UniProtKB/TrEMBL annotation:
It catalyses: ATP + H2O + phospholipidSide 1 = ADP + phosphate + phospholipidSide 2. Its cofactor is Mg(2+). This is Phospholipid-transporting ATPase. The chain crosses the membrane at residues 60-89, 276-298, 318-344, 875-896, 908-928, 958-979, 994-1015, 1027-1048, 1068-1091. ATP binds at D392, K393, T394, E494, F535, K558, R592, T672, G673, D674, R792, K798, N821, D822. Residues 16-82 form the P-type ATPase N-terminal domain. CDD domains: P-type_ATPase_APLT_Dnf-like (cd02073). The active site is at D392 (4-aspartylphosphate intermediate). PROSITE patterns: ATPASE_E1_E2 (PS00154). One of its GO terms (molecular function) is magnesium ion binding. Residues 1195-1207 have a biased composition (Polar residues). Mg(2+) binds at D392, T394, D818, D822. Pfam families: Cation_ATPase (PF13246), PhoLip_ATPase_C (PF16212), PhoLip_ATPase_N (PF16209).
Length: 1207
């Protein structure tokens, strides 16, 4: 057998030969070393500087530095620019290096993990990074899979092994993989060392659920599927050992293919500032041109008259060259409109905001001893502008812990919620099962003693109910010692149900391919397992047929109420009506429901059906359809037993958090790898979906045409309803003419409707919806809905959905998840949040922010995010204002100094103005300021909307700040100029000299900007007072020192104007001039703000006023005081209702098809008792659900004779 050996640039297929590194190295496959870092020691400096100089401002300051090194045009020393520029570059470089260091640390930790590799016939320990394609690896229980492996053999019978795929798809329930039968017996290293099979398969890709390939060995070929693969990131569970052949390594593995690239994230304010810097530079050039033209005219008309005693400097020989040099001189002088200190201050403020997040005790989880962490300092203000949140489900919204909460048996509902409110138990004592049942699970919680009493008194229907739960499942049991049972459930739902039966006296002990052994009320009973009618997503139910020791045959069935209630005997109508009400109530509580039923079979019925089942099972064509028909035939005329209600425990505070974020106009999309029913059920649990929604649309088409048709049907339905609402409800706002054409005009209308629609779309449908010709239609349809849930999505699809919204909606996005399957989504979003949960720390390492509970997200956004955005916007507005006020004085002075590029202020004032005199007050405002307290931010979520609409700092606000700054500069220049030009000292000496004018203008400037920041500051702390008044004091101290005789004696060539400050500030006219200039600058601002507050107050103004009124009344402020919080009443205080008498199914079952066949074939039965890893009991904190008044309890009907147990 020969195969073509070659290496092409674009890999079309992969060829791997086992135990032959020399052969495999010809293809130059990637090694198993991964690298998520951006730099190394050699590339850090050039790459980081290149990235930093992509910032327009840094390039701008570098250009200015070069100009300042030219003595002919520079009026300022070069150190005034190079020192702050070097500081900014250094701070950013240190921050980037620190971030990348942790990436390197994480990479090294993973790459240096140990793995057992079969080399030259013996197992040797190798680091993961040294594993190569074609190597055979031994994995042991609870180990991570090092690379994408083809499973060769296992310690389990028939080459089976169990894996947990939480890192890939977020699901913690176990999955089964099986080796090819021909290699399953190669369990010995000696046999594996001689294995030289060759695999030809697909090239590396990101499809987690697909694999196609062929194994060639001993002149035969065997097809390979995804069921034969162990993917990197999985964990081997409940399997002593297995061997696998490395097919894909390192960056070629499906996990890394789905990880996405690390992106350099920048905020919208950063991007806006880049644009504004370009505009300001253009404005600066215009001012330079104006002043240069003025210089040319002045030198030609006036300056030429003074050539005899004011000659041009040697390089200048005509007025045009003088104007050219004057232009560059003014560019240097006027560059302070955007000082480098702006960027230093921005980084300091962001660092302060990050520490506030890290120090927030209200975002600290005491259970896991984990604090919130800002892993980046560059995105804080973006937290105040989020419009879309993309959330994982398992581990993010839920704890992935199933608990048996309620049940309905023979028309009687049992079970109570266990709710803590201010640490008071509202639902009775937890039942103690130990005296009643020594085999009970001590971690099981139930709070209704009526059910236990019903079991104890021997109620036949209750016994049959739990008998069904102990028999109808695919759980495997391991009894390590007497009474110490470990259940190995393929889905957490089944584990919860079997554990419930165990505690109520019906204990599942063990199984063989043909029997199930239980302990019923202390008595051991063995049933013959005649058939398992397996579960699948179409049937939505599973059944078992068993024969009891007395020979009676009975079918037990559990499944979705929508399919099972249709298959009941007509005599069940009354019981079905009552049970349906209970199911409706459970579904409204967000519980996952299953209906339970049974059917007695005669021997003849069983024999006849068994024959037809065997015929269908052996069919070569349409086997699945034939089996489904056989199952359908027997699952008829069943007797209803009742229903179960399981809670997929939400994380604490999830419904409240989603409700508050929705009130803040934040749209939440759930992107999950779970199946549709599970995701929808959680949607109802966390109140994303409610029963009073107008419609919940489901997109599940498998073809492009069907998906497009379903999307258009949704659009047509929603747009029709919205158009009718806008027409009927808009009195005085009638739309003119006929309805506008679809889709764009109505999208604006739909954005304003509190969309009572929800959209659920499956992964295979989403793949078509994300195609280029359909993506716009999908976005417009999805964004018209209040809630969107995407099910069965791959990690890459999660990232594609995020990118789609970024592309079409131009909105700030946030992605939150806890597993490795969420990394690509976290990296793609503007902001990535990692939950430090049960699925490792990969999501945290890739995130920008991390904490341990989803509920902390509302505080991160509504408090820290909103404050950061508010502070940054106020900081920028004030900074541009004060620097235009400071710089434009030079522009006006140019018209009075012959356009000679002489500065108004001395160079020390110019250097210290932004570094000392005005830096600390604006930093204090940028770090500590707040408009309303944190609890008010949570109480009034609408306060968040200005950030989403970008109202506080935009181009309009920028021009307003610039206009105010220019107005202030006009006042600061012309008022002192007009007053001092004719003023005299008390001795009669004129005050119209350069130094007096400069000191007066500088003093007035410092006082005006200090008063302005005092007006802008909304929240005063000790730091604000110290910095504002301290800066004024430091200005006076430094100014007097610079004009003192002491410095003049030490540096006579540097400090020429001795005593100018003292003599100037001793003149009353100077202080009157300063007071006049301050009043002219500040009074219009006060008047404007007073009128705005009175005529058009913002919500924050109203909240502050309300707070003041409450304080004056001295009444305690409670959570229910705010109108916005009261508006949440329907969400946080009432249970989900139903609409129009209709009911929805609460069915959700995380089971997968195939386990029934494994059990009946005996392939997963152990030949010997192997030590299994015990499942550690996880602490589960109750989520605080909303309280609701109990419905009237129905009296159970008489059902004598309807339910007869097997005796």
């Amino acid at each position: 057998m020969t195969h073509l050996v070659g290496c092409v640039s674009a890999e079309e297929e992969r060829r791997v030969r086992a135990n032959d590194r020399e052969y495999n190295e010809k293809f130059q496959y990637a090694s198993n070393c991964i690298m998520t870092s951006k730099y190394n020691i050699i590339t850090f400096l050039p790459v980081n500087l290149f990235e930093q100089f992509q910032e327009v401002a840094n390039t701008y300051f570098l250009f200015l530095l070069i100009l300042q090194l030219i003595p002919q045009i520079s009026s300022l020393s070069w150190f005034t620019t190079i020192v702050p520029l070097a500081l900014v570059l250094s701070i950013t470089a240190v921050k980037d290096a620190t971030d990348d260091y942790f990436r390197h640390k994480s990479d090294n930790q993973v790459n240096n993990r140990q793995s057992q590799v079969l080399i030259r016939g013996s197992l040797q320990n190798e680091k993961w990074m040294n594993v190569r394609v074609g190597d055979i690896i031994k994995l042991e229980n609870n180990q991570f899979v090092a690379a994408d492996l083809l499973l060769l053999s296992s310690s389990e019978p028939h080459g089976l092994c169990y894996i947990e795929t939480a890192e890939l798809d977020g699901e913690t329930n176990m999955k089964v993989r099986q080796s090819v039968s021909v290699t399953s017996e190669l369990g010995d290293p000696n046999n594996l060392a001689s294995f030289n099979g060759e695999v030809v398969c697909e090239p590396p890709n990101n499809k987690l659920d697909r694999f196609s390939g062929t194994l060639y060995w001993r002149d035969k070929k065997y097809s390979l599927t995804n069921q034969n693969m162990l993917l990197r990131g999985c964990v081997l569970r409940n399997t002593e050992a297995c061997y696998g052949l490395v097919i894909f390594a390192g960056p070629d593995t499906k996990l890394m293919q789905n990880s996405g690239r690390t992106k350099f994230k920048r905020t919208s304010i950063d991007r806006l500032m880049n644009t504004l810097v370009l505009w300001i530079f253009g404005f600066l050039v215009c001012m330079g041109v104006i002043l240069a033209v003025g210089n040319a005219v002045w030198e030609r008309e006036v300056g030429s008259l003074f050539q005899s005693y004011l000659p041009w400097d040697p390089p200048v020989d005509n007025f045009l060259f003088s104007a050219f040099l004057s232009f560059w001189s003014y560019v240097i002088i006027l560059n302070t409109v955007v000082p480098i200190s702006l960027y230093v201050s921005v980084e300091v403020i962001r660092l302060g905001h990050s520490y506030f997040i890290n120090w927030d005790r209200q975002m600290f989880c005491s259970q896991c001893n984990t604090a919130a962490e800002a892993r980046t300092t560059t995105l804080n203000e973006e937290l105040g502008q989020v419009e879309y949140i993309f959330s994982d489900k398992t581990g993010t919204l839920t704890q992935n812990i199933m608990t048996f909460n309620k049940c309905s048996i023979n028309g009687q509902s049992y079970g109570k919620y266990f709710i803590h409110v201010v640490f008071v138990c509202l639902s009775g004592e937890r039942l103690d099962f130990t005296p009643f049942n020594p085999l009970a699970d001590p971690d099981f919680c139930f709070y209704d003693d009526k059910l236990l009493e019903s079991v104890k008194v021997g109620d036949s229907c209750t016994h049959e109910f739990f008998r069904l739960l102990s028999l109808c499942h695919t759980v495997m049991s391991e009894e390590k010692s007497e009474g110490e049972l470990i259940y190995k459930a393929q889905s957490p739902d089944e584990g919860a149900l079997v554990t419930a039966a165990r505690n109520f006296g019906f204990v599942f002990r063990s199984r063989t391919p043909g029997t199930i052994t239980t302990t019923e009320m202390g008595r051991t009973v063995t049933y013959s397992l005649l058939a398992i009618l397996d579960f699948n997503n179409i049937r939505k139910r599973m059944s078992v047929i068993v024969r009891n020791p007395e020979g009676r045959i009975r079918l037990y069935c559990k499944g979705a109420d929508t399919v099972l209630l249709e298959r009941l005997h007509p005599c069940n109508q009354e019981l079905m009506s009552i049970t349906s009400d209970h199911l409706n109530e459970y579904a409204a509580d967000g519980l996952r429901t299953l209906a339970l039923a049974y059917r007695d079979l005669s021997e003849d019925e069983w024999e006849a059906w068994s024959e037809s089942h065997r015929f269908a099972d052996k069919a070569t064509n349409c086997r699945e359809d034939r089996l489904a028909a056989a199952y359908e035939e027997i699952e008829q005329n069943m007797m209803l037993l009742g229903a179960t209600a399981i809670e997929d425990k939400l994380q604490e505070g999830v419904p409240e958090t989603i409700a508050v974020l929705s009130l803040a106009n934040i749209k939440i999309w759930v992107l999950t790898g779970d199946k549709q029913e599970t995701a929808v059920n959680i949607g109802y649990s966390c109140k994303m979906l409610t029963d009073d929604m107008t419609e919940v649309f489901i997109i599940s088409g498998h073809t492009v045409q069907s998906v497009r048709q379903e999307l258009r049907s949704v659009w047509l339905c929603t747009s029709t309803i919205v158009f009718s609402q806008s027409t009927l409800g808009g009195a005085g706002k009638q739309l003119h003419g006929s309805p506008p054409p679809l889709p764009l005009p109505l999208s604006n209308v739909m954005d304003n409707i509190s969309g009572e629609f929800a959209l659920v779309i499956n992964g295979h449908s989403l793949a078509h919806a994300l195609e280029a010709d359909m993506e716009a239609e999908f976005v417009s349809t999805a964004c018209a809905c209040k809630a969107v849930i995407c099910c069965r999505v791959t990690p890459l699809q999660k990232a594609q959905v995020v990118e789609l919204i970024k592309k079409h909606k131009k909105a700030v996005t946030l992605a939150i998840g806890d597993g490795a399957n969420d990394i690509s989504m976290i990296k793609s979003a503007h902001i990535g949040v990692g939950i430090s949960g049960q699925e490792g720390i990969q999501a945290v390492l890739a995130s920008d922010y991390s904490f341990s509970q989803f509920r902390f997200l509302q505080r991160l956004l509504l408090v820290h995010g909103r404050w950061s955005y508010l502070r940054m916007c106020r900081f920028l507005c004030y900074f541009f204002y004060k620097n235009f006020a400071f710089t434009m004085v030079h522009f006006w002075f140019g018209f009075f100094c012959g356009f000679s590029a002489q500065t108004v202020y001395d160079q020390y004032f110019i250097t210290l103005f932004n570094i000392v005199y005005t830096s600390l007050p604006v930093l204090a405002m940028g770090i500590f300021d707040q408009d309303v307290p944190d609890h008010r931010s949570l109480e009034y979520p609408k306060l968040y909307e200005p950030g989403q609409l970008n109202l506080l700092f935009n181009k309009r606000e920028f021009f307003i700040c610039i206009a105010q700054g220019i107005y202030t500069s006009v006042v600061l220049f012309f008022v002192p100029y007009a007053v001092l030009s004719s003023a005299t000292q008390s001795t009669g000496v004129p005050l119209a000299d350069y130094q007096t004018f400069a000191i007066t203008t500088a003093t007035a400037l410092v006082i005006v900007v200090s008063v302005q920041i005092a007006l802008d500051t909304g929240f005063w702390t000790v730091f604000n007072h110290v910095f504002v008044w301290g800066s004024l004091g430091s200005y006076l101290i430094i100014m007097f020192a610079l004009h003192s005789q002491t410095l003049f004696r030490i540096f006579p060539n540097q400090f020429h104007f001795v005593g100018s400050a003292q003599s100037t500030l001793l003149q009353p006219v100077v202080w009157l001039t300063i007071a006049l200039a301050t009043a002219i600058c500040i009074v219009p601002v006060l008047a404007f703000r007073f009128l705005k507050l009175d005529l058009k107050p913002q919500l924050s103004d109203t909240v502050r006023y309300t707070q003041l009124v409450r304080q004056k009344r001295r009444k305690p402020v409670g959570r229910n005081a705010g109108g916005a919080w009261r508006g949440m009443g329907s969400v946080s205080e009432g249970r989900l209702g139903t609409r129009g008498g209709s009911r929805r199914s609460g069915y959700a079952f995380a089971h997968q098809e195939g386990f029934g066949e494994l059990i009946t074939s005996g392939k997963n039965m152990r030949l010997s008792s192997l030590a299994l890893a015990s499942f550690a009991s996880r602490h589960s904190s109750s989520w605080i659900d909303t309280l609701r008044r109990k419905k009237h309890t129905h009296t159970p009907p008489s059902t004598s004779g309807e339910c007869s147990p097997i005796k």
